Amino acid sequence: MPSREPPCKSVSFLSLWTSLRPSLPGLALTLVLALAIALLAFAPISSASLPGSDKLHHFLAFAVLAFPLPFARPRLVWPVILTVSLYGGVIKLILPVFGREASWGDLVADVPGALCGGFPGALCGKICRRPGIIG
């Protein structure tokens, strides 16, 4: 009797959707935050009226940006931190086109912000998935 090998496993749209579904809210929130950061970065406004320093604002913005997706998918923490850090660099490169001055010191605040947002996001995501915590 000839052996019957299982047919090649194909990835259907439904299986792909099912695997991505848990991370969609995290991805959506991350994209909305990235858009808000870009709008604030390119807008001709001054942060002098806000409490705290400009570097603190950058640190907090990139920490908040790096939190949601690792929360939804903790294994994505390093790609998110890298992407968010690169996003800060790209913003610095584009700022002169909008008549804004690029400060590389801001990027020095963006990267630690991404680290301080991504790792707690992943940790909280792992903790919340323990049995009895959620679901």
Characteristic key phrases:
135 residues, mainly alpha, 6 helices
Textual characterization of the structure:
This protein has one domain (24-128). It contains six helices and no strands. It has helices at 13-20, 24-42, 54-66, 68-72, 77-94, 104-128. Helix 2 (24-42) runs antiparallel to helix 3, helix 3 runs parallel beside helix 6 (104-128) and helix 5 packs antiparallel against helix 6 (104-128).
Gyration radius over CA? 20 Å
- The pLDDT mean sits at 83
Question: Treating each run of at least 4 consecutive H or I residues as one helix, how many helices?
Answer: 6
Q: State the total count of DSSP E strands.
A: 0
Low-confidence stretches: none
Query: Can you tell me the overall shape?
Result: elongated
Straight-line N-to-C gap:
47 Å
Give the H and E element order. Answer: HHHHHH
Helix coverage percent of residues?
A: 55-70%
Structural class computed from helices and strand pairing: mainly alpha
Strand proportion? under 5%
Question: Biggest sheet, in brief?
Answer: none
* Integer count of domains: 1
TL;DR?
Helix content is 65%, strand content 0%. The chain has six helices and no strands.
List the helices and strands and how they pair.
Elements: H1 13-20, H2 24-42, H3 54-66, H4 68-72, H5 77-94, H6 104-128
